[in-house]
Amino acid sequence: MKIPSPLSEHASTPSGVDEKDRGGRHSTGTLVRSLRTSVPVLPFLTYITLGLLVPTLVIINLAFRSDSGKLTLANVRTIIHGGQYLTGFENSVKLALATSIIPAILGTMLAYAIAQSRFDFLKRLVATASGVLANFGGVNLAFMFVATFGANAIVTTWLARLGFNPWSHGFDLYKLWGVAFVYFYFQVPLMVLIITPALNGLRPAWREAAENLGASKWHYWRYVGVPVLMPSILGSTFLLFGSGLSAYATTEALTGGTIAITPIQIGAYLQGNVISGEEHIGYALGFGMIVLLLISILGYVLLRVRSSKWLQ
Amino acid sequence: MILDSHTVRPTPTVESNSPGAPVVLDQLVRQFGTTRALDGLSLTIAPGEFVALLGPSGCGKTTALRVLAGFEEPDSGTVHVRGQDVSGVPAQRRDMGMVFQSYSLFPNMTARDNVAFGLQLRRQRSSARRARAGELLELVGLSEHVSKYPHQLSGGQQQRVALARALAIEPQVLLLDEPLSALDAKVRAELRDQIRALQQRLAITTVFVTHDQEEALSMADRVCVMSRGRAEQIAEPSVLYAKPETAFVAEFVGVSSRVPVTRSKDGVELFGARAKIRGDVESLVGSDIDALLRPEDISAKVASDGLGIVNHRSFLGATTRLGVGIGGVSVKVDVRSSDAELFELGARVDLSLSSRDVLVTERKIDA
Amino acid sequence: MASVVGDNIVDFELPMVPLNLENRRRIRWGRALILWLAAAYFIIPIYAALKFSLQNIQGKFSLSPITAIPSQPGLGAAFFLSMRLAFVTLAIVLFLMVPTMIYVHMKMPRFRRFMEVVTILPIVIPPIVLILGVLEAAPLWLKASPYLLSLVYVVLAMPFVYRSLDSGLGALDVKTLVEAARSLGSGWLSTIWRVLVPNLRSALLSATVLTLALVLGEFTMASLDLWETLPVWIVDFDQTNAHISTAVAMLSLLGTWALLTLIVSIDRSNSRRRRRNHTS
After folding, report:
1. Does C18 touch chain B (CB under 8 A)?
2. pTM (2 decimals)?
3. Chain A adjacent subunits, 3+ CB pairs under 8 A
4. Which chain A residues are within 8 Å of B96, Cβ to Cβ?
5. Helix, strand, coil % in chain C, rounded to nearest 5
6. Which of C42, C270, C29 is nearest to A126 (CA)?
7. Which of A226, A240, B202, C207 is in the most buried spot, having the most CB atoms within 10 Å?
8. Residue B350, H or E segment
9. pLDDT digit string, tens, across residues B249-305
């Protein structure tokens, strides 16, 4: 039944007006002026260049140079064509995937469980705790876990007394999956920290509007809740992936460098364990890490943009 | 002096098989901790009627709407729709369409998908849904924006989509919770007319919550003025304005001035003359009472020995509003702008009542 | 439930999942379980490590790991080295960032976007990779000094410092404050010191604490640059006496924890104060 509209369309502007840069005039006067205005940020720019850009360029450069200085793909080829370095990358990626996807899921569930809680005290406690725990890591964390889950440590002995010693069932704190288990300690709080604002960004009006239109709780989550949260969850997973990929201190303190992941191999390289003929392999390893991290950061940024549009 | 909320049932302008449903709220009570958000609210709405719930923040109007929608359960009292008690029915099944104050559109869906959402839940086929959503969006004048996402639409456009979405499920009752409050003045005025026109054409029972009396008076068939969880007065806008039954209504709707008066034989002494009291006099205790006067109910005359002094002037267009200090209070008086130059600041004037009777109430004691 | 509109009969059948009392109770227990498991995972290691710190070599309870701390070789030197590096880093990063960000907030607001991107970069170039490039690119005389680490730590600290200062400055109307101060005769230095810095107290505090926590806990670059800072000492000493190492690690952890909790609570009391002021 078509009803002719009594409404008319008036011109209206979209709610987010672009703060577009209106600098269009290309006179030299404007150029000089904007250069002059930029002078005070030179110290910052110089520092960034010297402290971040230069080292990075050095790495990229040396990754493609042989010991005598000639341009070469030998280093990269060595890595890609198998052997310990490729294994290192594979392990690193496996570790990063495990310590991003699982904490993403657990972190979201935890954040949701907390957001639903009626106890305000709990919410505040968790907010503080997440902020602190996400910055944990490195040496202190490693020592804590050795004292807890090491071969003769506290929890291990408890469990052994109860009849179930995890070590005799294949658990090894100093192998890849043991290390992953330790990573959860800062990856999960990091996820909780990132996803809680997104969860809070779910407006109650959406839930009520959905209910009003006939949706059950499941319908709401399926059509509105989860789709709206998905960019945040995925984006955070990318961030966690980067974090899990580049962690060094925790693993080094934990395993003493006996585990085959790329950061450890870079560390070994710097400590002088260099095979002749692979003088610049460390730089190629570093370059490889940069590439992987660029991809994950890109994923994070793109998804952040999407989620901020929906959750503003 | 608060009268019991007696509702006057208007003659229905729509037939009984109209899409709108009759709604009866009976003695609703809802308490949050120590606050009584609803304190015995009763209201009967005829099919196809547009009723506004008007009141200051905290008066319970939004709570009443949410009880009607099913988002809140009343502590006591009932809600009947089309003669059936819906108290046990969850919000999902009440078949009412609600438009929220702002930002209620699902951000991950286009305008069209938002509007079609209710139909999607009811398992309508995709082609039928799209067509219907398109129709409704055209109805609200947004056919060029069907594929836009909420963040790409202005506030006014978003609310129109929200309206279309609520109407898509062909609800028995349309509920609007201050839908225009978050918009700027010009857009508000346009949308006001458009919503009312749409509602009349569709003849759907509508409950509209607002704190803006201009909105309520211009849109509604009847207005229920609320304060502290109860209905102060339920009447047509013109009646509400001309014959406020309580002090609250008189002061909330339209402009009024308070003037202390003294009781005389069958009325009060006001501006040196006797005036009749409107309504029930018996329950007034004591002789210390205030009269509530509208600016247009008083006339002013320049007089060199007048008891009032003009202390303020506001040009309002066709009328000019004067502030006149008299007997220790300031009274607002409207005069024709063409006569306004006679009433300079500081001029002495005499005031007299130009209406037949006057509303009185207990004297307000200022701290 | 069917309704009639005009001559269309639209049949509405709403599919429903029963959310009865039984289901609801099950969900609440599931939620509680998640919370308890999480609490266990996070709290038990702390308890275990504390217990381990209070055991002697035989495994019996003893305060000896704690009391032995002051007399351990190298610990004092390592601790003080870490502190020196922390303060130098802090000085450089504040001296660099505070004026820059004030200026950017006032005169070049669009530059903020660029700065935001720049401060995300340390995620792409993590410490383990950065130190590779730094050790190659830095001149010898710089490598001979531990303060090379401070210089690099500044880069690591930048994201945190940027974010703290950005939100602190964002809450003020910098332009107006500065113009008001200048119009009353205040010079640039005096304006920064007397007008802006006091208003940035909590942002500065949070930036300071994060930088300190960062430097005191940084292991990767210090160990590969061969300087024995506190974390490096802890790892090295583990061979000698794991209990003492763990005790020092736990103290360091508790210290960092206290510092970080401090900012979070200051931050929250500030936002509460801000909210109160706005609802006047």
Report:
1. no
2. 0.76
3. B, C
4. 212
5. 75, 5, 20
6. C42
7. A240
8. strand B348-353
9. 988 998 888 888 888 777 788 888 888 887 666 666 666 788 888 898 898 888 888
